[in-house]
Design goal:
The structure is a single chain. This protein has twelve helices and 39 strands. Strands 6, 7, 8, 9, 11, 12, 14, 15, 19 and 20 form a ten-stranded antiparallel β-sheet that branches. A nine-stranded parallel β-sheet has the order 29-28-27-26-23-22-21-31-30. A hairpin with a 4-residue loop joins strand 8 and strand 9.
């Protein structure tokens, strides 16, 4: 069984194929974290928790005569606040009497088959997996607060998901000021933390730092998960590599303000706490009210960063995203944004689609500028009706014409935003998030709609539904182009303003859910100025997310590699764009742009009508190549073929079939050099004693030779050369 409770030892054991998680209830009801790692063969790991009297670490009243037993140093499952644990807290409360203390003790537990849903929030789908859930209820009897800790074990996928439900069991109000989803205490080890920071047009750059006695915070208060700090962290051995070392992952399945805190304490133990960012957050729990936190996806492997990535890729591809996209081939698309920006007509879009269809492109996506008064980014957001002066005949005519070409049609929306210069704002200024008596902060000359207001959600659902009903639209690009400020809802009383940011996210999730239920064949691609909302919460609704507004292939090497640590290639929106690139001015060969964009859902974002005949022929071949390798790219194991010595010279990565039958290796040279070193690419994920043929050659090599000796390749001439190598088992 995945979850076993030993009554005699008060010990919970949660087991996956390659890991074990232990929880123990002590003699005064503290819920202790025993262990997370490889299987211990039924050993109670509490023997490692030694009694040590540490200065200025007080004792709970029951342990007043045992100075070595302090909650300030004990590993716990969920820390209270204000009662002697001076490390990061998992909860913050204000009781009716003003007290801010919370002492959580074991009350009960339940082990259930399957996995319950989280009201209003996305969570990892159990589908047909064998999933078991442990619910441990903690209580503070004094203030009447319960914290129900949910642990769902996906045994075959080496994943444990966690979230917390807070319940007010008193007859008085309780205000939550902090509500963590999960906490992990690791007693021993020399650790590095890895997180994925960045900025607009350079998201998810890997940052690795050795832990010392301090607190590391990875967070966003922008109203979205953000370009700047992704809600995913890794704790790994200081010496861990792609293929060696203990690694723990903590990924928050949430698209709003988040916070992951990592603290190494005076005794050398490490604590990770993940959840909603408590800045400007509060939640009023009336008597009998409950509050559910977002879900955290937790994983462990003893085999390095590569295996940790595979665990997350599998769970996201198979259980976070709608599983139907595992079997549906997504179309190669072309988006008009970098081809035309706002300057287009129906005829121009049809011309692009006609040329693209001749090259093998399967879907035309019309981006910003088709609605309301929208000839630039200063007006029109919120007015979701077609501008028929720009698009003569409307979207129906356009989608019909594109359909005649054998192509699908997709459309851009930015539902959560509003311009001051819009009919919607003139009619409903109270629907924007604006502080009373204060001018709003503007970004791109737009404001943010109050998604916590059900009337706003209904308006958007009705507008989008009308558009979808009037034309043949199979795809939406869902954008979100500014951070949130002035978080004040005119729809909520003053005492509930601390709830607005979270209710905003719940409103967005609700709208997405309603649309997908009403239009089950609709595919939505997430976007937020590129990768500003690239998180597991959005992936629940959107099987792919536009990875970055930076379409430069060489910049994308870094962006897509950082993304790969937690997210599978099947979720990465990636396009071939024009050269020189519109963001960097860099000129890159079309072949290299194709190689990089194929490490994603693949498409084009340029004016194909302006391409030469030679370029068009090359695009045709790129699309044929991508379609040939589609299932290998989308479903395989992904490997970062890291060569630290030459990391600044070239990048290489591999897609290896899970049955080891084939592998596709991609190489891009970032820095051509005179008299350059030969590049040795050591493949992974092959069958050692099988023979592999390099497609297009007579070269036959064993899997062992390719993995341990490597494949030598000499590409160094010109600007940013690239290669794709396909190895097939014979």
């Amino acid at each position: 069984m995945a979850i076993i409770f030993d009554e005699s030892r008060k010990l919970f054991r949660l087991s996956t194929t390659n890991s074990e998680y232990q929880i123990k209830v002590d003699d005064i009801g503290l819920v202790i974290h025993n262990y997370y790692g490889r299987s211990t063969c039924d050993t109670d790991m509490s023997y490692q928790i030694l009694s040590v009297d540490r200065g200025f670490s007080g004792n709970l009243f029951e342990n007043r005569d045992n100075r070595g037993r302090s909650i300030d140093v004990l590993p716990q499952e969920f820390s209270g606040c204000g009662v002697g644990d001076y490390r990061i807290s998992s909860v913050g409360v204000v009781a009716k009497n003003g007290s801010r203390s919370c002492d959580l003790r074991y009350k009960s537990h339940e082990i259930i088959d399957g996995k319950p849903e989280i009201p209003g929030l996305p969570s990892v789908r159990p589908y047909d997996d064998d999933v078991t859930t442990l619910v441990i209820t903690l209580e503070d009897k004094v203030i009447g607060l319960e914290a129900q800790l949910f642990y769902s074990v996906f045994a075959d996928k080496d994943v444990i998901t966690r979230h917390t439900r807070f319940v007010n069991v008193s007859d008085k109000k309780i205000h939550l000021e902090k509500a963590a989803s999960a906490m992990l205490d690791v007693q021993f080890g020399s650790w590095d933390e890895i997180h994925f920071a960045g900025r607009h047009c350079m998201e998810r750059q890997m940052s690795r730092n050795k832990l010392t006695q301090d607190i590391k915070v990875i967070s966003s208060k922008r109203g979205m998960s953000s370009h700047h700090e992704n809600p995913f962290v890794i704790l790994c051995d200081h010496g861990a590599t792609e293929t060696y070392g203990d690694c723990y992952g903590m990924m928050l399945m949430y698209s709003g303000n988040h916070k992951i805190e990592i603290e190494q304490d005076q005794a050398g133990s490490t604590r990770i706490v993940a959840g909603i960012n408590e800045e400007n957050f509060s939640w009023c729990l009336e008597a009998s009210d409950a509050f559910d936190t977002p879900e955290a996806i937790m994983a462990y492997t003893p085999s390095g960063l590569e295996q940790l990535s595979h665990i997350y890729h599998n769970i996201i591809r198979e259980n976070v995203c709608d599983r139907k996209y595992m079997e549906i081939k997504r179309p190669v698309l072309i988006n008009n944004w970098e081809a035309t920006y706002f300057d287009f007509t129906a005829e121009k879009i049809i011309d692009i689609a006609k040329t693209a269809s001749e090259l093998g492109v399967e879907m035309m996506v019309l981006d910003d500028g088709w609605f309301g008064k929208r000839d630039d980014d200063n007006s029109g957001l919120g007015d979701w009706f077609v501008n028929e002066k720009k698009l003569e005949g409307g979207l129906k005519r356009l989608s019909d014409e594109i359909g005649k070409l054998g192509m699908k049609f997709g459309l851009w929306f930015e539902p959560e935003m509003i311009n001051e210069d819009s009919n919607l704002f003139r009619e409903h200024p109270d629907w924007a998030l604006v502080d009373p008596d204060r001018h709003p902060t503007m970004a791109r000359n737009q404001m943010v709609l109050d998604m916590s207001n059900p009337k706003v959600e209904d308006y958007l659902f009705n507008c989008i539904s009308k558009i979808l009903d009037d034309a043949n639209i199979s795809y939406i690009k869902w954008d979100f182009n500014r951070s949130i400020t002035n978080v004040y809802s005119k729809n909520l009383p003053n005492k509930k303003q601390g709830e607005v940011s979270h209710r905003f996210v719940l409103g967005t999730y609700s709208l997405l859910e309603r649309l997908l239920n009403a239009y089950p064949n609709l595919m939505i691609e997430g976007c937020s100025g590129g990768g500003g909302r690239f998180d597991a919460g959005m992936l629940y609704y959107c099987p792919q997310i536009w990875c970055s507004d930076d379409t430069d292939a060489i910049e994308r090497l870094e962006i897509q590699e950082g993304t790969s640590f937690g997210y599978p290639v099947s979720t990465v929106g990636s396009h071939v764009s024009a050269s020189p690139n519109h963001q960097t001015g860099r000129s890159t060969p079309l072949a290299t742009r194709g190689v990089v964009a194929m490490s994603g859902t693949f498409g084009y974002e340029l004016d194909v009508t302006k391409m030469s005949e030679e370029e068009k022929a090359e695009v045709k071949e790129q699309i044929k190549t991508f379609n040939k390798y589609y299932w290998l790219i989308q479903k395989s194991d992904y490997y970062r073929l890291v060569n630290e010595e030459q990391a600044e010279v070239y990048k290489a990565w591999e897609f290896a079939a899970k049955d080891k039958s084939e592998a596709l290796v991609n190489i891009v040279v970032k820095k051509s050099q005179a008299n350059a070193k030969i590049k040795i690419i050591k493949l992974r994920g092959l069958e050692e004693d099988a023979m592999y043929l390099l497609e297009g050659t007579d070269n036959m090599m064993s899997g062992a030779a390719l993995m341990y000796g490597g494949f030598a390749i000499n590409i160094a001439m010109g600007d940013y050369p690239s290669a794709q190598l396909h190895f097939v088992r014979q």
